[in-house]
Amino acid sequence: MNPSKASSTPKRKRKSKPKAKAASTPDKLRIVSFCCHYCSYGAADLAGSSKMPYPLNVEIIRVPCSGRVDPLHVLHALENGADGVMVTGCLKDQCHFVTGNLHAEKRMMKLQKWLETIGLGGRLEFQLMSAGMAKRWVETTKSFYDRIKELGPNPLRKGGK
Amino acid sequence: MSSEKPRIGVFVCKCGTNIAKVVDVPAVAEYAKTLPNVAYAGWQLFTCSEEGQNIIKDHIAKHKLNRVIVASCSPKLHEPTFRRTIAEAGLNPFFFEMVNIREQVSWCHMKQKDEYAHATQKAKDLVRAAVYRAALLEPIGSTTQKVPPVCLVIGAGIAGIQAATMLADNGFDVHLVERSPALGGKAAQLGLVFMTDSCGVCVPPRYGEMARKCLSKRVILHDPKIQVHTQTEVTQFEGYIGNFQATLKTHPRGVDVDTCTLCGKCVEACPVEVPNELDYGLGTRKAIYLPFPQAVPRAPVIDFDTCTRCGKCVDVCPVKAVHLDEKPKETEITVGTVIVATGFDVFKPEGMYGWGEYPNVLTQFALARMMDPLGPLEGQLQRPSDKQLPKRIGMIQCVGSRDPETNPHCSRICCQVAMKHAWFIKEHWPDTEIHVFYKDIRLQGKDYERYYLECQKLGVHFHRAEVTDVKQGANKSLTLAVEHHSGRKETVPVDLLVLSAAVVPSEGAQELAHTLNMEVDLTGFFREYHLKLAPVDTTSDGIYLAGACSSPRDIAESSFMAAAAASHAAIPMSKGEVQVDLAKSIVDESLCIGCANCFVVCPYSAIKMEGGVAKVIEVACKGCGICAVECPAEAIQLRHFRDKQILAQISGMLANVEVPEK
Ligand SMILES: Cc1cc2nc3c(=O)[nH]c(=O)nc-3n(C[C@H](O)[C@H](O)[C@H](O)COP(=O)(O)OP(=O)(O)OC[C@H]3O[C@@H](n4cnc5c(N)ncnc54)[C@H](O)[C@@H]3O)c2cc1C
Ligand code: SF4
Ligand code: SF4
Questions:
Q1: Model ipTM?
Q2: Domain assignment of residue A70, yes or no
Q3: What separation in Å is there between the alpha carbon of B238 and the centre of ligand 3?
């Protein structure tokens, strides 16, 4: 993690966008999920094509590999008010990019510990699944949503605790 | 990065009613108009249609759009389609962003009927995220990689041989690598095979020939375009399409194939006798042996694990072809493409139905070896325990198939194999009684039904039943406890029990997948790039699949697939080059501090350290972005997934969440 990097992120354009704000639904919890193109994104697609429901609060950002997800990206999401963040990748030994998921796991484990120390514990979930595991995708999103519901909104968010 | 001001066009798709039933599509399009840099937004019924694509092109011209967003289905489906569309309209294909509001909004939330308003909101969030990201997209070009006309074919079963000969006929050079000492794979050991009821090692006529040929007529060994490496494995492999480097390790044969006259004196002289692994305990072989009578290459091989190095074979060989001191050999080759044809293995039904415990319980493969006229018993049907002709034979289907405990998949060929064997036995030994116990009979191939009808005509008994227990009696005959699907229970005595054991991935498939960086599916077979649209491609460009290595297949299917794989491999090799897009990592040398973090983590060795800075080998980089996270200096970035692009997407997604200003 590199704090100097975090501060170099583009300015949020909230001010210039009153309309977007008007459409906001602050009562809804927001979960950002990073999905790798080859596995977990495929699992989410399969859940969709199999018409398997899961919480609407989960919104996906596609990355080539879970190994592309920088702790900085997770922090940026939390800083912008996400109530929870999921990072999902291919199964062990089945990463499309060989070792990407292992790097992701190490990074996210470390970050999870760090988040606890700043009062954001439990808001980052790391899970592995293959593209065929729509069921695991649904179960993971459901149980993470339940956990976030219990934790309540992100304290960094207006109206958060 | 392009300096012109972004002018984004947003095209929201109804996908008929697929999306529109759940998401208020016109509302999403209206909303998109309010977002920064959006110069046009609208909705369509089917954006991917010819008409839909033309509308995109028209709007690009009319509104001078320089970025396009389509909110429709999964990018896994249509990202390539729309990239092509915008390229046809003169935009760089990477000025495109896709929002998945079908699989990831309307379809998954279709059953959440009270939450359709939330679904529409979610679609808006995703579109907004894409708009923020799109503003920061950059044009990305491509580079050319030469592809030499040389293919590595791994596995010389029917599929590997078919692919190798087709490529050679097309003028390409082939390295055909086979792990075992003989070519032909399983098909060479099966005796007569369906659908032709001919020998499994018949190979199709080569270009310009009239008749098919027997593999043992050395068609392959004498082709100057095909270099055959038996007893060889790929131990190291790296590179990318056009430039794959493989290390081949060849174990010593101990016999010089070119001088050997196959007189057989060495085999006679050898004092060591061990069970022949090919024959499942039915026969024995010497430490120097010909794997099976029609084995190609036509020379014996020494099994150095059991050889005592007594030297008797060396002494008797009239042409001095035996060399006990031959060493393993390593060869390095560079090839443009690779075809994997490593086939399958027969499941070992350990602990099931007395297999491995009772001598008269066999697999269909062992039965095939037994009935092969050139096999260890020269085509005799007999019980292993007493060499008597069995009067009653039981066959159990789906052993290790369609079973959550062992393998969930259907092995696809076993019903047909059982029919073939039952028919053959009934024709040659008509007094034999045959009972087949099955869950379902699935005969999927062309004209397979004929075998079923013949079996019924000849009086083979079919029982839709489970065999719940097998007991061995005094004379080693077996008693089967049978529970019919109708609920009726009975016991059935048999002299010989044959298990239709599953078709499973070949031994070492996992390791090979790892070496070649291929994927396997949940059954352990190699994964195709796309089951429907790219069934012989893999996720690694330039590596193709043929035969039973990606799913159980019969010979005919393995042979089609080999032809398809050969023609796919031929495409880049005949063009002589491929275009590789440069959505790869890139180093800003002015920022790089030379720490080599990226070099260390790259799984593809796509980074080299040169003059104290990192350099990306663009054709080798696969674009995972693992390196970008490790760089402490923000010097290496993955194009198309740069930090700032991902961060903007996150900002956009959450722009309607209120966070107290810092
Ligand atoms: C009992 C039985 C009866 C059958 N009868 C029929 C029939 O009558 N008709 C029919 O159409 N089909 C039949 N089949 C199916 C048939 O065997 C397959 O369709 C066919 O063998 C598939 O060919 P292949 O080349 O893909 O695989 P294989 O025949 O398995 O050949 C693969 C080759 O690759 C080699 N190899 C494996 N791993 C490596 C490695 N890592 N490096 C180098 N080489 C490697 C193996 O040694 C082998 O030579 C039968 C199958 C069984 C089990
Ligand atoms: S993105 Fe980086 S780590 Fe991944 S293949 Fe390319 S250079 Fe290697
Ligand atoms: S990690 Fe960054 S700084 Fe280190 S060598 Fe690679 S590009 Fe240069």
A1: 0.86
A2: yes
A3: 22
